[in-house]
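Checklist before submission:
- one chain only
- standard amino acids only
- sequence pasted in full

Submission:
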Amino acid sequence: MKRLCLTTLLFALLLLTGCLNPFAPELGDPSESIWTDQQSVGELLDNFKNTYNLRDSLRYSNLLADNFTFKYYDVDNAREDQWGRDTDLKATGGLFRNFDEVSLTWYAVAPVIREFTFEDSSLEFDVSFNLSLYGSTSGSAYDLYGLARFTVVKESGDKFRIITWKDNSYF
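Returned file contents:
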């Protein structure tokens, strides 16, 4: 009888503590997410920065409109060039995979731009940035400074997305 009580007690303890893992980290407060719902241009820029800093290509794709265009100056061919959304997602995914650390910083974003929330309208603006790329396995490091010209839109009931990004980077 004593053995049956002891076995039952041990079984009950196992059931009660079986789902607890003392080594599991505590979950944070989900309301404290770094991700925003992109209802203002500032929130869009915050998400953009976070996608780069965390190298998150899935979240990055959510920033771009379906008709997104990336414009840049092709130094090798001495001409302006551009590509669409699919090519940009592949290029950005490659950048995220090839560098161990990516750090993007925006500079001097005017409050009137950060707070812009109007639906069914687009906004074109310039923002200064620093993009630092470090590859510990390759030993490469790059610091890019430049000016990005964005055109963004927020369709009614949706979030802000980037239509065009013209990159004016320099080393």
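Reviewer check: Residues 2-17 form the longest helix (16 residues).
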